[in-house]
């Protein structure tokens, strides 16, 4: 039986990797992927806690998170395409002018 | 019924103010005069009704509706006709009607719309004046008080295209405002002390109090009211506006600044006779101020060269007499003088108006002279007015002035009496100086005497006629047209006969006016006005005690002898004054110039009206102006107020310049601050 702390350590590690990706990478698609990693790190925590508490709440919330993540990925990718068409770049630092 | 009296002139005002510019002169002027005459008729009917009542019960009350009801304070829009206000409404509507009729001729050179504007103001004035004298409580009186002040301003500045007229109007308004401020304070003090503002209620409340020994609440209250009266009635220290008010049309000077409005202060003291007589400290101040004003204005009047200004100072001086009478507790005598003065001063002003009218706007008496044969009606009526004001028996001025002087002497204030007699001498002298310079001697054509030190007379209120026009003016000098002549003649008859209702007992008269007015100065304790007060005798002794305090009455026979002696003195003084004027300005005209040269500083002092205007300008006006300009405007307004507004803008601007650096537009910066925020909040909850 793997103890709860292992799950949490793995989850925290994944979350940190995702966070670092968001801050450090210069490609919008990579940043979106990093956000997905962070979401899944959280999902892992939910499931782990749900198993630990002996009920299904964690798993139910995970389904919701996955649904939202799918929608978010769709919208995010659409925005990325729109931005790319506009400026031929995927570097977020290229989009700082706050106006079209 | 009573409400109709002010309502008629008010309707005249409404019609002339709205439709007046489309009406021809005969309609607008006739309408205004008719409104006044209607008001006069109603007044006479009301007074008739009043006279039919028992002397102690004479009062007609009419309360239109409750105007203010707030807590303990209940003020009704109420009118009360009693013997005192009866005298006033007859004066206002009677003399007012004559002046309206006179004005239809005097103002005939104005265009239709101006003519209607003039009459609308005049009607509005009459309406407010009637509200003032009929009001049954202080706030209603105050409405009239402020209303006549407004109309005074409008009419002084009637020729508003002329700067001096505008300035004079503003001066009158501002100076009156100072007095009105004190009046409001006095009104509040009355309410704080008595809890009511009804005149009768105040009088009966005060009648139950002892006469105030020192300088207490009653003295302060009455003093505040008196300061209000000094503004309206042109007494020291607030008299300076009245001579300048002569910028207005002459009938206005006759109506407002001689016969009616300026006597409002005297009326107000008479209306609150009970209150004032319980504050001997104030009464003494009133008497002293009145006497000093009478003397000061009389001396100034002696050297002025503008015909209307001489009359203006004469008015100030006569008002001083009225206040002297009031201060002596001789309320009846004061009102008597008010009433006779209304006749002869209105007559004198209208006479001077006829002269000015005939000379096409000339007001400098040095440019007149010899008008007697061109203007006979004006001359004779003017002389009657001058004799009346000088105090020659049996004309009106004699009886009233003599009664005031007698009361003063009988009260033991012999210093005030001497000044009063001296002023009577001055009155006779300057009035006949005016008569002699204007109507006698040679006719002088438009040139100011070279010995004069006054700047050229700038008081011509009409566009100055061309010089050639003036030179041949004497050939077609025309006497007063019918409308003016009627007013002059009626007033002249009044000036002769008006005093006869107040002939004292000692020379066989009944002094009916005195007996008529008596109830107004007492608190009506038993009457229906205050039915809850059970003791009618409580008021009687208090009042006679008050009377006794002011007039140290002697035994009857002594008093008769004294009164007759004083009458003789008054008569001698009046004749002496006329004689002096005759000697100087008819026989030896060079004496006047010689005197002027001999006593150059004194002459200059009088010619410049004791430099009061200059002193006020230096002490009050200029400091206020400088403080306002440099302190309030350039200092407080520009630096503090504007600084605060601009400072608020600058702070927002500066902070925005700093804060906009946070809004970089970089997504990762936002994500970073979001992350940092979450870490900090979580950290706080975890480690607290």
Produce the secondary structure layout.
The complex is a heterodimer of chains A (100) and B (688).
Chain A: H1 4-24, H2 28-53, H3 57-87
Chain B: H1 4-18, H2 25-51, E1 60-70, E2 73-81, H3 83-106, H4 112-134, H5 138-156, H6 163-194, H7 199-207, H8 217-232, H9 241-244, H10 250-259, H11 264-271, H12 273-277, H13 280-301, H14 307-327, H15 331-358, H16 376-390, H17 396-410, H18 414-439, H19 467-471, H20 482-497, H21 512-517, H22 539-550, H23 556-587, H24 589-598, H25 600-607, H26 612-659, H27 667-687
Helix pairs in contact in B: 1-2, 1-4, 2-3, 2-4, 3-4, 3-10, 3-15, 3-20, 4-5, 5-6, 5-10, 6-8, 8-11, 8-13, 10-15, 11-15, 13-14, 13-18, 14-15, 14-17, 14-18, 15-16, 15-17, 15-20, 16-18, 16-20, 17-18, 17-23, 18-23, 23-24, 24-25
Descriptive report:
The complex is a heterodimer of chains A (100) and B (688). Chain A has 100 residues and is mostly helical. Helices cover 78% and strands 0% of the residues of chain A. Chain A has three helices and no strands. The longest helix of chain A has 31 residues. Chain A is elongated, with a radius of gyration of 17 Å. Chain B starts with a helix and ends with a helix. With 688 residues, chain B is mainly α. In chain B, a hairpin with a 2-residue loop joins strand 1 and strand 2.
């Amino acid at each position: 039986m793997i103890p709860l702390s292992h799950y949490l350590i793995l989850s925290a590690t994944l979350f940190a990797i995702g966070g670092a990706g968001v801050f450090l990478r210069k490609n919008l698609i990579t940043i979106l992927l990093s956000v997905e990693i962070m979401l899944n790190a959280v999902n892992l925590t939910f499931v782990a806690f749900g198993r630990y508490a002996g009920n299904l709440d964690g798993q139910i919330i995970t389904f919701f998170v996955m649904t939202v993540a799918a929608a978010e990925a769709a919208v995010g990718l659409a925005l990325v395409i729109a931005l790319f068409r506009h400026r031929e770049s995927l570097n977020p630092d290229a989009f700082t002018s706050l106006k079209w | 019924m009573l409400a109709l009296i002010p309502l008629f002139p008010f309707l005249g005002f409404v019609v002339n103010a709205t439709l007046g510019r489309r009406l021809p002169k005969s309609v607008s002027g006739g309408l205004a005069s008719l409104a006044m005459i209607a008001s006069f008729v109603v007044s006479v009917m009301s007074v008739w009704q009043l006279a039919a009542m028992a002397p102690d019960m004479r009062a007609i009350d009419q309360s239109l509706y409750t105007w203010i009801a707030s807590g303990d304070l209940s003020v009704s829009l109420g009118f009360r006709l009693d013997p005192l206000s009866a005298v006033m409404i007859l004066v206002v509507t009677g003399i007012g009607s004559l002046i309206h009729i006179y004005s239809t001729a005097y103002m005939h050179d104005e265009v239709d719309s101006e003519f209607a504007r003039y009459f609308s103001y005049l009607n509005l004035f009459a309406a407010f004046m009637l509200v003032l004298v009929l009001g049954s409580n202080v706030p209603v009186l105050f409405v009239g008080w402020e209303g006549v002040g407004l109309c005074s301003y409008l009419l002084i500045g009637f020729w508003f295209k002329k700067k001096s007229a505008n300035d004079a109007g503003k001066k009158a308004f501002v100076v009156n405002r100072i007095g009105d401020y004190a009046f409001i304070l006095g009104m509040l003090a009355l309410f704080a002390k008595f809890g009511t503002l009804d005149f009768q209620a105040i009088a009966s409340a005060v009648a139950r109090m002892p006469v105030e020994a020192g300088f207490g609440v009653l003295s302060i209250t009455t003093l505040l009211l008196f300061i209000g009266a000094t503004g309206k009635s042109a007494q020291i220290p607030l008299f300076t506006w009245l001579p300048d008010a002569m910028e207005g049309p002459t009938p206005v000077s006759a109506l407002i600044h001689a016969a009616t409005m300026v006597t409002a202060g005297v009326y107000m003291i008479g209306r609150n006779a009970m209150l004032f007589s319980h504050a001997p400290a104030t009464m003494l101040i009133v008497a002293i101020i009145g006497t000093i004003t009478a003397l000061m204005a009389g001396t100034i009047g002696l050297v002025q060269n503008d015909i209307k200004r001489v009359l203006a100072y004469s008015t100030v001086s006569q008002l001083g007499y009225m206040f002297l009478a009031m201060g002596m507790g001789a309320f009846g005598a004061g009102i008597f003088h008010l009433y006779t003065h209304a006749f002869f001063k209105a007559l004198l002003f209208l006479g001077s108006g006829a002269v000015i009218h005939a000379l096409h706007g000339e007001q400098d008496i040095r440019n007149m002279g010899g008008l007697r044969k061109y203007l006979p009606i004006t001359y004779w009526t003017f002389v009657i007015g001058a004799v009346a004001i000088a105090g020659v028996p049996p004309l009106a001025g004699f009886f009233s002035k003599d009664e005031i002087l007698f009361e003063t002497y009988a009260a033991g204030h012999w210093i005030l009496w001497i000044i009063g007699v001296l002023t009577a001498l001055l009155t006779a002298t300057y009035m006949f100086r005016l008569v002699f310079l204007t109507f006698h001697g040679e006719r002088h054509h438009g040139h100011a005497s070279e010995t004069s030190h006054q700047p050229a007379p700038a008081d011509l209120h009409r566009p100055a006629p061309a010089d050639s026009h003036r030179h041949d003016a004497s050939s077609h000098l025309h006497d007063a047209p019918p409308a003016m002549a009627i007013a002059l003649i009626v007033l002249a008859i009044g000036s002769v006969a008006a005093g006869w209702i107040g002939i004292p007992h000692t020379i066989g008269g009944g002094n009916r006016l005195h007996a008529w007015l008596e109830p107004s100065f007492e608190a009506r304790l038993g009457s229906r006005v205050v039915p809850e007060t059970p003791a009618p005798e409580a008021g009687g002794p208090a009042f006679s005690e008050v009377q006794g305090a002011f007039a140290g009455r002697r035994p009857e026979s002594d008093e008769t002898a004294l009164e007759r002696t004083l009458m003789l003195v008054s008569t001698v003084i009046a004749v002496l004054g006329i004689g002096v004027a005759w000697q100087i300005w008819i026989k030896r005209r060079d004496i006047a110039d010689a005197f002027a040269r001999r006593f150059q500083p004194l002459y200059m002092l009088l010619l410049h009206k004791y430099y009061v205007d200059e002193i006020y300008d230096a002490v009050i006006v200029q400091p206020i102006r400088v403080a306002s300009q440099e302190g309030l405007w350039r200092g407080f307004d520009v630096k503090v107020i504007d600084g605060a507004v601009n400072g608020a803008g600058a702070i927002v601007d500066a902070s925005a310049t700093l804060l906009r650096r946070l809004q970089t537009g970089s997504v990762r910066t936002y994500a970073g601050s979001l992350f940092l925020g979450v870490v900090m909040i979580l950290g706080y909850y975890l480690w607290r």
